[in-house]
Amino acid sequence: MKIVFHLFIHRVMKKIIFFLFFYTSFIFFFGCSEKIKSQPNVIFILTDDQGYQDLSCYNASNIYTPNIDFLANNGARFTSYYASNPVCSASRASILTGCYAERIGVFNAYMPNSKYGLNPKETTIAELLKKKKYTTGIFGKWHLGDAPEFLPRQHGFDEFYGILYSNDMWPKHPQQGSIFNFSDIYLYENENRIKTINDQSYLTQQLTEKTISFIEKNKEKPFFLLLAHPQPHVPLFVSPSFKGKSKRDLYGDVIQEIDDSVGQIINTLKTYNLENNTIIIFTSDNGPWLSYGGHSGSAGDFREGKGTNWEGGHRVPGIVYYPNEIESNTVINAPAMGIDWLPTIADFTNTPLPKNKIDGLSLVPLLKKQTTKSPHKNFFFYYRVNELHAIRHNNWKLYLPHTYRSLNGRKGTNNGIPIKYDMNEIKFSELYNLSNDPSEKNNLATTNQDVVLKIEKIADSIRYILGDKLKGIKGKEVRPVGISDFFN
User: Fold this and answer.
1) Over the stretch 439-449, which tens digit does the pLDDT of each residue have?
2) Which segments of 322-372 are extended strands (E)?
3) How far apart are the first and last CA of the chain?
4) Nearest-CA neighbor of 395 among 375, 379, 372, 383?
5) Is the dihedral of CA 464, 467, 468, 474 positive or negative?
6) CA 146 – CA 486 distance, rounded (Å)
7) Which residues face 187 on adjacent strands?
8) What pLDDT, on the 0 to 100 scale, is given for residue 225?
9) In Å, how far from its chain's centre is CA 231?
10) Phi-psi region for residue 98, left (φ > 0), alpha (ψ -120 to 50) or beta?
């Protein structure tokens, strides 16, 4: 009887142990799977002044970019992605906060020792993801204020390595160095100035090495990384091993070194089995600086470039790679903008949006092919200090009266010295249909006055919210920019 009883107990215990093992394995497996699914790594690669047609996946014929093409071919490629502003600081502020730069008072490109910067009260992508226990880092160009209270680690980044503003804001600039009396440009690690930069040739390589080191250190936990290359902003620099590698002279060499950097990052992710659970976003902060001729990028068939609100100033490459969620060879023709990255990343990581109002909307439905329509009906194009220059409404783009710079068909040189712009004026609203005229050659305002009046009413409504200096309107929802007295 005792033997039978012990056999019974033994069998029951085996079943209990098996059940517990199966249950805990089930919980562990699916719990980990859910954790992986809800907490992907995020790598945001941002170039400076790169044009729409500066990648082979965007029809560049003289620049070869196989690694960036790999991201596009195995992920999603936008054909109508817009930087939110055609100049550095304002565009970067939008990316990090999900807001039109005008809403948060960030205008133009900050000069060294500026009293202005991104207000610490604004919530960045890094701060958002810190709430989900992400480790965060930025390597490269900051350009959102160089006073202590505006530096990256005051905005949610755990690590910073790079420069505080554009790489041309130094005394060696062939033209602006003497005009603005720039001091030396310095390399920083966190808040510490570690050395003077006398030669930028190895900076792309150094930033890539820092990026790879960051991935290796944080491979066991979710991370957000912003790799903000100072190139191909002039002056152009490339490491010796990439000189003469492209068919596009020095500019092409620079892009191909950036492409190699992307390849090294992809290989690192593969080494640690992270590639399927990592979102990689690749884009530029604005279009090409055309006055530099051969030292600037190409906007392709789009009109004008950096510093204007024509398509060439805003429309840039936009690529998203995320094998867990995005199908290969996804091409998105619906328009999107830099304001949309924060809510998109928040959506993918199941992170609540900031308490402050933002302007961006999630692109996840587009990226996952749940829709083919843009989340926005209207896109607003500002420049300078809060001047509303243009509005895209569906496929129509209306240009409001303003002045803009142009080379008017002249070509720049190939020696790194810019030529002067002319100033053109739009006296009456101009209307273009981007669906059949992406080059904006045919002004249809006269024959479509009903469309003009409709979009002008939209302009009046956004002026009330975000302001318009040309009309003397401040905007009721504009929040204060950060102001420091550190350099006074």
Assistant:
1) 999 999 999 99
2) 330-332, 336-337
3) 94
4) 379
5) positive
6) 10
7) 195
8) 98
9) 14
10) left
pLDDT of residue 175: 72
Tell me the pTM.
0.93
28 CB-near residues (< 8 Å, 6+ apart): none
Q: Which of 300, 292, 325, 256 is nearest to 47 (CA)?
A: 256
CA–CA separation, 118 and 107 (whole Å): 10
How far is residue 156's CA from residue 397's CA, in Å, rounded to a whole number? 36
The one-letter amino acid at 132: K
> Quick one: DSSP state of residue 110?
P
CB 381 within 8 A of CB 314: yes
- Evaluate the omega torsion of the peptide bond into residue 235 and state whether it is cis, within 30 degrees of 0: yes
What HEC string does 188-244 produce? EECCEEEEECCCCCCHHHHHHHHHHHHHHHCCCCCEEEEEECCCCCCCCCCCHHHCC
Quote the distance between the C-alpha of residue 439 and its chain's center: 23
Contact 222, 351 (CB under 8 A): no
Residues 6+ apart with CB under 8 A from 30: none
Helices 249-271, 203-217: inter-axial angle, 10-degree rounding:
10
Dist CA 24 CA 263 (whole Å): 39
Position 180 scores a pLDDT of 81
Q: Which amino acid is at 340?
A: D
> What distances in angstroms separate CA 107 from CA 101, 117, 181, 460, one per listed residue?
7, 10, 22, 20
* Annotated active-site residue in 99, 143, 155, 389: 143
Active site residue 143: yes
Structure tokens at 108: 């133009």
Q: From CA 230, how far away is CA 227, in angstroms rounded?
A: 10
> 154 φ, ψ to 5°?
-90, 0
Residue 82, Cα to own-chain centre: how many angstroms?
A: 10
Average pLDDT score over residue span 405-429: 96
From the candidates 32, 57, 88, 155, which is the catalytic residue?
88
Angle at 367 between CA 362 and CA 370, to 5 degrees: 90
**Two structure tokens written together for 82:** 């817009």
Helix axes 88-97, 341-348, angle to 10 degrees: 30
pLDDT at 6: 46
Q: Do the beta carbons of residue 77 and residue 94 sit within 8 Å?
A: no
β-bridge partners, 42: 224, 279
Has residue 29 got a pLDDT over 90?
no
| Nearest CA-CA partner of 94 in 299, 337, 311 | 337
54 close to 300: Cβ distance less than 8 angstroms = no
- Among 2-11, 192-201, 366-375, 420-429, where is mean pLDDT lowest? 2-11
Is the pLDDT confidence value at 189 over 70?
A: yes
* Angle between helix 249-271 and helix 66-73 axes, rounded to 10 deg: 60
Active site (annotated) includes residue 32: no
Structure tokens at 65: 């970019």
